[in-house]
Amino acid sequence: MTADVAVETTPEIPLWNDPAQPVAARVDALVAAMTLPEKIAQLYGVWVGASDKGGEVAPHQHDMEEPVDLDALVPAGLGQLTRPFGTVPVDPALGALSLMRSQARITSAGRFAIPAVAHEECLAGFAAWGATAYPVPLSWGATFDPDAVRRMAAAIGRDMRSVGIHQGLAPVLDVVRDARWGRVEETIGEDPYLVGTIGTAYVRGLESAGIVATLKHFVGYSASRAGRNLAPSSVGARERADVLLPPFEMAVREGGTRSVMHAYTDVDGVPAAADETLLTGLLRDTWGFEGTVVADYFGIAFLKTLHGIAGDWAGAAGAALGAGVDVELPTVKTFGAPLVEAVTEGRVPEALIDRALRRVLGQKAELGLLDADWSPVPPALDGVDLADPEALRGSIDLDRPENRELAREIAEKAVVLLSNDGTLPLTRPRRIALVGPNATEATAVLGCYSFPRHVGVQHPQVPVGIDLPTLRDTLTAEFPEAEITVARGTGVDDGDLTGIGEAVDAARGADVVVAVLGDRAGLFGRGTSGEGCDAESLALPGAQQQLLDALLDSGTPVVTVLLAGRPYALGRAVAESAAIVQSFFPGEEGTAALAGVLGGRTSPSGRLPVSVPGGAGAQPTTYLGARLAHASEVSSIDPTPAFGFGHGLTYTTFAWSDLVAHTKEAPTDGEFSLELTVRNTGERHGTEVVQLYLHDPVASVVQPVQRLIGYTRVPLAPGEARRVRVEVPADLASFTGRDGRRVVEPGDLELRFAASSTDPRLTATVALTGAERRVDHTRRLHAVFTQEAVEGA
Questions:
Q1: What is the rounded distance in angstroms from the CA atom of residue 753 to the CA atom of residue 724?
Q2: Which of 117, 318, 611, 641 is deepest in the core (most CB within 10 A)?
Q3: Torsion over CA: 106, 107, 111, 112 (sign)
Q4: Spatial distance between the Cα atoms of 131 and 451, rounded to a whole number of angstroms
Q5: pLDDT digit string, tens, across residues 728-767
Q6: What is the pTM of this model?
Q7: 3-state secondary structure string, 625-694?
Q8: pLDDT digits 0-9 by tens, 237-274
């Protein structure tokens, strides 16, 4: 079998195939040898689906594209293969074989034998049938644990690389500005520093496995008006610079990312896909990014169809190329025949083609795809007998025990205990009423970009491919002696009230009620959370609030459990629930993680990456706002959250004390040194998350009341104490001044050590002295935390 996929080489290796030569020289030689159609062919992808029989991939038909003739395209070459595993359910081994055969076909058809880059989604794990479904990014943010996220990303990357994938379309670095937006579940949170640190950790993990990480969506997508998908974004230059851009800047500078995806949105009338100042001026010329910029799916065509800044496909292609977009995804549209014709007629300079081509080929050289000894056989099939494809079925496991263990670690660390009157942890309950639409729904733990919710729902006859225990299953295992009565009550969003009476009867006959509410992930209106599933308000979907209120009236303690993709207003439950447990689509191990928290086997340590609103209509409720964005006497709308950003309880107590500011004054190019003691004063092991916020009382432009500038997790045994030290560079006080440049101003500052944005514990007043100082993208980005055990504690 391997003989028919061998790449033919000559005794004299062409310069571009010689890995001993500099990449730039190899690329230049190849560009010079290519015809215009061959050049352009490297700048687009084709959306395909792998064959479950191990045959070659087949073009995927989509209602936003015309049918593609792969036979006609491949002789000129092909830049990318779009989602060979993430289009239809396919056994991983047979999918790898299918991709291998397709790569052999591509290389044998073209003059230069250049393989395609194969990319996949990986927002909640490798989006392939049978692959581990990890928690969604909002849960990553809830962990406040970059190292755990880095290890998860590395595991995802290894699985992708093993079957022949080169590029992953993650992470999402959009900062939440309005929780009504359907894609909140795909984000990491509402604070740019949290998004930046967690997102950069994910990039490092993915890249460490040899997968090209793709930052998205650059930039402004999450700031759309009223949280509507693809709506215009009304943000000023300062909000863009100080809130939306920092996570991307951090991931480019520190993460080693090799790709960026432009956003769909327009900011002040300029679509990101046609914004040269953004994609070239800032990203490349200022930040020094050297990788590829890829289009969000159909985003270049949208310049004509949705944005109206191009009159034809060639105009859209020229605008995107001129701005700095290198690759059209998911499939060929504007970069095909229209672009060839436009270059031939002189409407688009060939120099723009060559600029993008050099970036694409340079990346392929780095991936080894131009090397003379490149083989299409992926690592998972190396040395395997490929003569009988059916014998391969089931031979590649993308959901190994170590994956599930890591998925459970992330899920456990992401569970947020919002409130608790002492009912939790449950101590040997005799009778549990398990109520709600998500109590027995296996896929309630999955986000919209997980394979079962993204693709599997279109193939109901195909098994889900992974083990998805319901909360009923895991609670039964956690409390084997308890009598568990199940009542649906109502659906997620059907508004059905007929089952509420049965649910209340179950509640009255129980010692405790576990009400499992929340979302159903989906796409474009087929769910309550996910891409295109925007919400008019942050009231619980359907009749879930009516169900919850009826349960609260039953007289039995109610533990409210949320499996959701965004935060919701909970009405009376904020004050009247015995406890509230928030989990953001925690993945395949999510119900086990929840059962562990409910039963006390695990002490919760998650913190809110987004605020939980106090009211359903008070948007936006992000903590990151100026004084007038918060409650005031000049507005009848109170946006104060029920639970603020960074909030989370555990099953022990902590005392914070002995704050010392070793440096109370520092020059505008200096740093402050502080330390404090955190002690576990309870009887159980627990983890405190020390959060550091900066408050700037007087500045030359309006500032947020406070903003997160650092955090650290502090695990402590009962009675144990740690001395937490932090060095805070003055650069962290910088902001975009009136002239559009970043500045550090002298003056007083407050450094607030807090358990959340609404729970400051210790505050140090410090001062920056000396002259105002300009800083740029080379500024320091982090406060440096260290910890030391307190002797005798």
A1: 11
A2: 611
A3: positive
A4: 8
A5: 999 999 999 999 999 999 999 999 999 999 999 999 999 9
A6: 0.97
A7: CCHHHCCCCCCCCCCCCCECCCCCECCCCEEEEEEEECCCEEECCCEEEEEEEEEECCCCCEEEEEEEEE
A8: 999 999 999 999 999 999 999 999 999 999 999 999 99
